[in-house]
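Good morning C.,

I know you're traveling, so I'll keep this short. The sequence:
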Amino acid sequence: IKVKLPNATDLRAGNHCVSFSFEGANINLYPTSQWQKPDTQYETIVSHPGWYEAATAPQEVEFVRSQSEAVKSIIRIAQTWNHASTTPVPDYLIELVAIYACSPKTAGAAFEPLSALTRFFEVAASIDTQRIFWERFYKISNVPSAVFTEQPLVLDPANPLNNLAHN
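The tokens, ready to paste straight into the viewer:
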């Protein structure tokens, strides 16, 4: 960094990033990669906990973006409710709970908005007993047993180490 940005100041290495200041901006650099094979990505994430969390952001965005407009409507209502709460939780957790409440395995074959919203509130009310996970970007076998046995479990569909219900 000092070679490419000689004016950088406050250079320091943290637990999972390198931080510095440059021209008045505070910058945190997190390692990431463009893996050729998804299996390699998750093996790397599991073998280097915390270091590659930023690398899963594109998959997280794609997972939510790929949902139907009807599901996105439930997400927006759920987020509005969450933001009005006295103890709001992270938006991504709310998004995943809403997606789960709208999923065919939870909702049945037909999507009905009022029923989906009711299921969202039921799942949110019983979050302490939930076990929510997907196998879109990795197999459950990639999840370390220490993470998979946590209770409650709302597993990030893009990061097999990230139980959002424990954060």
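Safe travels,
E.
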